Amino acid sequence: MILLDRVTKRYIKDLPPAIDRMSLYIEPKEFVVVVGQSGSGKTTLLKLLTREEVPTSGKIIVGGIDFDKLKDSKIPQLRRKIGVVFQDFKLLPNKNVFENIAFALEIVGVSKREIKYTIPKVLDIVNLKGKEKRMPIELSGGERQRVAIARAIVRQPRILIADEPTGNLDVKHAWDVIEVLEKINRYGTTVLLTTHNVEIVNKLKRRVITIADGKIISDRANAGYHNKIVHEDET
Ligand code: ADP
Ligand code: MG
After folding, report:
1. Domains of the chain by start residue, with CATH
2. Ligand 1 pocket residue status of 42, Cβ below 6 Å
3. Could you tell me the strand order of the sheet in which 2-9 lies?
């Protein structure tokens, strides 16, 4: 569950806030698409949820954790509940697929044996079975993004946040990524996706939240996207 109650995030005094008294409730296992022009506050919203940014005012609760009561020492516990995927994949270029995913497990002390057991399973979920030994440079953009998704979900987070994950991909590879996100959502993970791609939004038929100037201007269940505010070429 994700709850925002009149959340404001102001980066710079005297400038308009990036998030402006936003209230929002997302149920467990929902699939939510966040759309809005470049600079509307999408990334800031996601960063508030992972505690990369701290709100100027307002209340945030994520996965039962009330941020007002969140001590710094408990932030890793929050982050374990949330997997994050970015537009630019952020894979380690000198490590192969197995090592890139294993890294996420090694840092939390998972045994070698369990890592060996887990990675083929997670590669299967992202439709990259048997690609353990590939280097990132040997993969297409869509495959790289699916490795990044595998790394984000390998610790079984309850929430997956994907910030413009298809922004660097052509249509076919974008769909491969979206299908994997839908599969992960079917398995019970809450998915929060931001995108500029109108075609993706329309075909997905999921809850669509449109933001402008840090405010929600529409929130529609199973919506296609008709408003012309969003353009595909923006990032
Ligand atoms: P989006 O992801 O929708 O493009 P962002 O959340 O990145 O929007 O940005 C929202 C607004 O906040 C923009 O006006 C942007 O310039 C501003 N902003 C984002 N990050 C920072 C920052 N670290 N410092 C100052 N301003 C920022
Ligand atoms: Mg952004």
Report:
1. 2-81+158-234 (3.40.50.300), 90-156 (no CATH)
2. yes
3. 19-26, 2-9, 57-62, 65-66
